Amino acid sequence: MKKKFLISIVIILSFLSTKSYTAEFDVKAKTAILQDYLSGEILFEKEPDLQIFPASMTKIMTSIIAFELIKNGQLSLEDKFFVSENAWRLSQAGYSSMFIMVGDQISVDNLLKGIIISSGNDACVALAEGIAGTEEEFAIMMTSKAKEIGMTNTNFANSSGINHPDNLSTVKDILIMSNYLIKNYPEFYKEFKEKEFTWDRTGGDPITQGNRNPLLYKNIGADGIKTGFLAYEKYSLAASILRGERRLISVGSGFTTRNQRSKESLKLLTWGLTNFDTIEIAKKNSKFLELDVWLGRKDKVGIYSDIDIYKTIKKARLKKLETKIIYNGPIEAPIKKGDKLEKLIINYDGNLLSEHDLMALESVKRMNILSRILKSINYLIWGDV
Fold first, then answer.
1. 59 is known as an active-site residue
2. Per-residue model confidence as pLDDT tens digits over 288-308
3. pTM for this one?
4. Options 56, 97, 169, 236, the catalytic residue
5. Domains (ranges, CATH) in the chain?
């Protein structure tokens, strides 16, 4: 009695092959990566697993640890931590600093601003000691969190990223960390686009410092994330730009000069914007399509994906990407909301790219017995479902 249906939605677009596009483009960095945030697709990569010293990009994880504790109610922005001599020494050693003083009691809010905007190494240590007791214990928390979110080639040895042989990562892992930050802490991420922070320091006039991220000053939609510098590693930058709903994230390390870091990071992000488009295939928890229902109190049921599905396309190479739903329909009632009914199948040139479960958007009760009999008779006579 059931019929097999094939629903085919054909969209003209291209499928990414990172290697083929990477061959056409390069940046002057030792290692780099570029990703479309919505689709998750990698648009460019150059030695993405090469081990690097992440320098001040380490501070992204320092911030994440604090954000998580705040979100869980274990820490407050109003909480205050004492500044130890250990933290204060970093402000006297020539490193980037917030310029805090021994014995100061500083709010978590100000310490985070000092870390994110001013890149203060002294603020990192004060926050780390306030949360974990020692910076060493805090670094263990950082590494544990890194492993939890999939940063498989990262080890954190301190909270600031200053010289340490065991403070190691890759641009791919920094990209994973940047994604995690933006996705999970949007209410805090907005601090990363702030261009300056004024600290009313003890024993001196207030000091205003600008954000070291050069892309924030170029009117391209940049809203983060973090610069880095070490004498051995040279210059690095994790950057994000937002155009409408589209976001690109880049990470690069091994730029030889500060100017090259700015120029090449901008070139990479601009290349991604001008050469690719991102389209929406399915919106999370929104009706994707309606399917026929057999013997139900409703004739149709909506189906949806529980995740956003996007594809990033190469503007200059349009090809066919086929989106299909193949199902043994109509779907027989009863149906419960959330039941997995069928799959969304995405093919490119006849090759399977991905499959996604599609669920019932609502419950559909089964007809009573008399209605089912009449419906079956009607089908036998007229072939109508």
1. yes
2. 999 999 888 898 999 999 999
3. 0.88
4. 56
5. 3-14+287-382 (2.60.410.10), 52-211 (3.40.710.10)
